[in-house]
Amino acid sequence: MPESSVQPGQLCCVTVSKWWYRVIIHRVINDQEVEVFYPDYGNLEIVRKSWLRFLKWCYLKLPAQAIPCSLAWVKPLEGTWSNAATLLFKKLCGSKLLVGIVDEYVNGILHLFLCDTSTEEDIYFHCVLRDGGCADVCGENIPSQGFKELNPSALYVQPSGKQENAELVEPDLRLQQESLADSETASSKLDGDEL
Question: How far is CA 30 from the centre of its chain?
Fold first, then answer.
């Protein structure tokens, strides 16, 4: 990608371990690296600028697959999650298949209970966090103070306004399309106002 296109909000793709992923440039780190957001996975990562490529048009219009989520009925003891709570949560997730039970979908955030069913007794995350002294179970869904800062999908992904039969709808990427001389590739930038 030309240097002029390497800027925050640019939708493109990156190759990592011989696989291609859609990314949005989140911030430029230095001359060699950028931090990117994966709209189909929901995570941030630092990658080399030389790994970035423009996307073909057909991949630009696909909706994002990541959905902002929050653990239901639980809140941090203080205003933000402690390092102990974060480590415990990561340990609970540890490359396992989990069961997610949807509590509600409000303001573009999916609130769900997570449960590990791989053992004889089901393990509910909110209970383990409470029992470990890392969280309060509050019976309502209150995203933590730092939720938006820690969740870049709030910048780049919005829920679709169309809902049929109260079902969840895939989020759409807020994109402004630009044409390039090569009709097979296109670049896309988010409106500066949306950042």
Answer: 23
